[in-house]
Amino acid sequence: MLQDILPVQIFGFLLTFARIGAMVMVSPALGETSIPPRVRLAAALGLSLVIFPVVRGTLPALPGQPLMLAGLITGEILVGVFIGLAARLIMSGLHVAGTVIAFQSGLAAAQGFDPSQGTQSALVGSFMTLLGVTLVFVADLHHLLIAAMADSYTLFPPGQAIPLGDFATIVTHTVSASFLLGIQISAPFLVYGLVFYIGLGLLARLMPQLQVFFIAMPLNIGLAFVLLLILIPALMTWFMDYFTQALSVFIL
Fold first, then answer.
1. Does position 77 have pLDDT exceeding 70, yes or no?
2. Rounded to whole angstroms, what are the CA distances from 132 to 17, 90, 97, 222, 244?
3. Between 1 and 147, where is the model more confident?
């Protein structure tokens, strides 16, 4: 009896790990590049062990052909990557907001490595994304990612055809909504930059002998820091509300 049951259980766990592991490796918070790969692998294995007994009834039977097995695993990986990338696109709104704020505050030339993006970006953008990841854990919003992993087996049952049309629609909507979120978060700094540079232009016309550049740069950076200090609680609260609402699409 054990020889008949064990391969089926191993197949079910492998199928679960293919989806959960793909989601963990590309999702925000849990799959950041700053986290060592072994830690991410251990988290994926642990989540798979927890979720497998819950979703065991939705898993298909063990196929008889290797090609069918490869097709099932490939489909699970694609579903996991899709949900993980959708969650990461939500975080990209903070990167857009930080980049716009950096340009408006005169800090666009100050570049640093952004762990969330895996490349060089403005320091303000790196700060915003790092703060967003921290708040996701502090507010226990990573539980939404785990709930999305479990509920994905109801939304996208294993062994069935992948709804590529629905995937494309969700990705398109997520990209546009994340870009809109970034512009909305940085809107106060857009207004600030417009008013500040108009004032400098008027000052330069009224006092041509004044060295506007040497006054503008320190004043621009200082006022932008003060404005960011005042607005950062409201901006990050707005982001967390949007993060919760966007992930609710994948939660039943």
1. yes
2. 27, 11, 12, 23, 13
3. 147
Contact between residue 196 and residue 105 where contact means Cβ atoms under 8 Å apart = no
Contact 76, 158 (CB under 8 A): yes
* 247 has pLDDT over 60: yes
Q: In this structure, what are the phi and psi dihedrals at residue 119, rounded to the nearest 5 degrees? A: -155, 180
46/88 Cα distance (integer angstroms) = 21
Place 4 in a pLDDT band, splitting at 50, 70 and 90.
Answer: low
**H helix intervals, the chain:** 2-26, 37-55, 66-105, 123-138, 142-155, 164-185, 187-206, 212-247
What is the rounded average pLDDT for all residues in the chain? 82
Return d(Cα 178, Cα 161) in angstroms, integer: 28
**CA 252/CA 110 separation, integer angstroms:** 43
Amino acid at residue number 63: P
Neighbours of 155 (CB within 10 A): 15
How far are the Cα atoms of 6, 18, 52, 168 from residue 73, in angstroms, in the given order? 19, 6, 15, 21
Q: How many domains does the chain have?
A: 1
HSE-CB for 41 with a 13 A CA cutoff: 3
Q: What are the tens digits of pLDDT across the range 33-72?
A: 777 888 888 888 888 888 888 888 888 877 777 788 788 8
Residues in the chain: 252
Please tell me the distance from the alpha carbon of residue 210 to that of residue 216, in angstroms, as a whole number: 11
Instruction: Tell whether the model's pLDDT for residue 198 goes beyond 70.
Output: yes
CA distance 71 to 191: 52
Range of the domain at 18: 2-250
